[in-house]
Amino acid sequence: MAWLEHEAYCTAIVEETARLRDTLRGSDPGAKVPTCPGWTLHELAAHVGQAHRWAETIVGTRAEKYLPENQVPDYEAPAGEKLDSWLAEGAERFAATLREAGPELPVWTWARPQQAGFWARRMVLETLVHRADAALATWSEYHAPAELAADAIDEWLEIITDPLAVEQTPELVELRGHGQTLHLHATDSPAGLVAEWVIERGPESVTWRREHAKGDVALRAPLTDLLLAFYRRLPLDSDRVQVLGDRELLDHWLARTAF
């Protein structure tokens, strides 16, 4: 599916980081994050801010190969109240660098396309999902903007069906099948946004498309909850989601896309 406009990602990286900061503000930095085993809230925040700075340095230096962390300025996350401004400054600087670069600037990435636009999208969606982790850890409300939630589902499907990723990840080979289909259905998608997906498990590859169709198993929920369930942040037995059909088929999928 088509990506969002580059400027939309540049704006969203600042907005999503601000929402993350709001979620973290006043919380215990040592609190555990249930959906990221082994992480505290401070470590979650540090990860997001470090990812922003790493990607910003890749784009800003026009890196042509993997960039080691020790080459990223201001990489270490501060403790205490300074963490909030550190997150804000990193997001603002990243957005400015992305705007200057434009989406088609050639840079190193770990997936296609090898352009600055990859990092704009990837880091927005990384922040969107980790904001959910922070919200779940702090018992805060969470809502994902509809276009970003749908784009995050698209991106995850793109990553796990990419032939190169499949070659390097044995679990993804096990997603192949004999024509079984999964249907993801957002029950509250706004007008003009197709928020339904059909995934088909073929013997040679897994394919997907945005479309309304009957599947062997259907996962139905409001779009934010659909995103959380598909990213394994919300259990399938939650009363916020509905599973119809072959539950084992969906369990099998989620178990092999948990990396």
Structural descriptors:
Four Helix Bundle (Hemerythrin (Met), subunit A), Nonspecific Lipid-transfer Protein, Chain A, 2 domains, 9 helices, 10% strand
Topology (elements, then pairings):
Elements: H1 6-24, H2 41-60, H3 82-101, H4 116-138, H5 146-161, H6 163-168, H7 170-173, E1 180-186, E2 196-201, E3 206-210, E4 217-221, H8 223-230, E5 242-245, H9 247-255
Parallel strand pairs: 1-4
Antiparallel strand pairs: 1-2, 2-3, 4-5
Strands in their spatial order, largest beta sheet: 3-2-1-4-5
Number of helices: 9
CATH topology of the largest domain: Four Helix Bundle (Hemerythrin (Met), subunit A)
Mind telling me the CATH class of the largest domain?
Answer: Mainly Alpha
Question: Strand count, sense and closure of the main sheet?
Answer: 5 strands, mixed
CATH homologous superfamily assignment of the largest domain: dinb family like domain
Bulk shape = globular
Number of domains: 2
* H/E topology pattern: HHHHHHHEEEEHEH
Structural class: alpha+beta
Q: How far apart, in Å, are the first and last alpha carbons? A: 23 Å
Task: Calculate the mean pLDDT score and round it.
Answer: 96
What's the alpha carbon Rg, rounded to whole Å? 18 Å
The percentage of residues in β strands lies in: 5-15%
Report the strand count. 5
Uncertain regions spanning at least 5 consecutive residues: none
* DSSP helix fraction: 40-55%
Pfam family, one: MDMPI_C
Protein name: Maleylpyruvate isomerase family mycothiol-dependent enzyme
Domain Mycothiol-dependent maleylpyruvate isomerase metal-binding: 11-135
InterPro entries: DinB/YfiT-like, Maleyloyr_isom, MDMPI_C-term_domain, MDMPI_metal-binding
